[in-house]
């Protein structure tokens, strides 16, 4: 960083304001010299980092942040995280889920969904984690987010439909099961097959309800 580009913390202060700032700083130094020393060390480290940033680097970072705010890039891309690292973190998080370590898995996939807000899979897995925890409201929210990002997510439809079924929302459950079945043209997807089973179960339940009504 050029000498003229260095940050001057006193820039823009009048002589009176500058004098007041110096008095306050001296008072703070006397009250807590240890904390003041730590703050001074921290500011020196920040200054060293800033001095190593060129104006070109700052411009690139600003443009990247603008694109992040617009939703065009992910936080992982802002941080320069390679896809391979995200993949390894995903594998670790899913292993925790398979082992039944739900809180650890939740923490991992919450972090991943922050790092890459465009990835529907992270929300689907979070939904499955919450479903296992029986936090059905949170699970519905995650499955819905996954479906909005990826309308062909069979797993999210099947699992969301199952929650609707368990909470006696049959119409919503049937709609999700039918969508999962529709997306499975080969008839081989295990989640779509579960949707088929549960759809038939709901239809059987409705038939039983009709019979019960006739008996009354």
How would you characterize the largest beta sheet?
none
Mean pLDDT, as a whole number?
A: 81
CATH class of the domain at 83-150: Mainly Alpha
The gross shape turns out to be: elongated
Structural class: mainly alpha
Low-confidence stretches: 1-8
Number of helices: 11
Total strands: the figure is 0
CATH architecture of the domain at 83-150, please? Alpha Horseshoe
Helix residue percentage: over 70%
CATH superfamily of the domain at 83-150: Tetratricopeptide repeat domain
Summarize the structure.
With 216 residues, this protein is mostly helical. The protein has helices spanning 15-31, 33-51, 55-69, 75-79, 83-98, 102-115, 120-133, 136-149, 154-166, 170-183, 190-215. It is elongated and about 90 Å long.
Features:
216 residues; mainly alpha; 11 helices; 77% helix; 0% strand; disordered N terminus
Question: Could you describe the 3D structure shown?
Answer:
The protein has 216 residues and is mostly helical. Among the domains are: 83-150, Tetratricopeptide repeat domain (Serine Threonine Protein Phosphatase 5, Tetratricopeptide repeat, Alpha Horseshoe); 152-216. The chain is built from 11 helices and no strands. Helix 7 runs antiparallel to helix 8 (136-149). The chain is elongated and about 90 Å long. The model is unreliable at 1-8 (pLDDT under 50).
């Amino acid at each position: 960083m050029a000498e003229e580009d260095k940050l001057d913390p006193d820039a823009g202060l009048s002589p009176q304001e500058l004098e007041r700032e110096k008095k306050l700083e001296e008072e703070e130094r006397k009250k807590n010299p240890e904390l003041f020393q730590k703050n001074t060390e921290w500011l020196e480290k920040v200054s060293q980092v800033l001095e190593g940033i060129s104006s070109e680097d700052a411009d690139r970072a600003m443009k990247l942040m603008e694109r992040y705010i617009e939703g065009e890039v992910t936080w992982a891309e802002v941080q320069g995280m390679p896809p391979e690292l995200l993949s390894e973190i995903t594998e670790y998080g899913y292993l925790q889920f398979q082992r039944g370590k739900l809180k650890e898995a939740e923490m991992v996939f919450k972090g991943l969904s922050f790092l890459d807000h465009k990835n529907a899979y992270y929300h689907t897995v979070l939904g499955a984690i919450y479903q296992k925890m029986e936090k059905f409201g949170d699970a519905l929210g995650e499955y819905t987010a996954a479906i909005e990002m990826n309308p062909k997510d069979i797993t999210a439809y099947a699992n969301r439909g199952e929650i609707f079924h368990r909470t006696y929302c049959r119409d919503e459950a049937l709609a999700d099961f039918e969508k999962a079945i529709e997306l499975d043209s080969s008839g081989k997807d295990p989640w779509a097959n579960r949707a088929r089973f549960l759809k038939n179960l709901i239809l059987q339940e409705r038939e039983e309800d009709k019979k019960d009504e006739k008996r009354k």
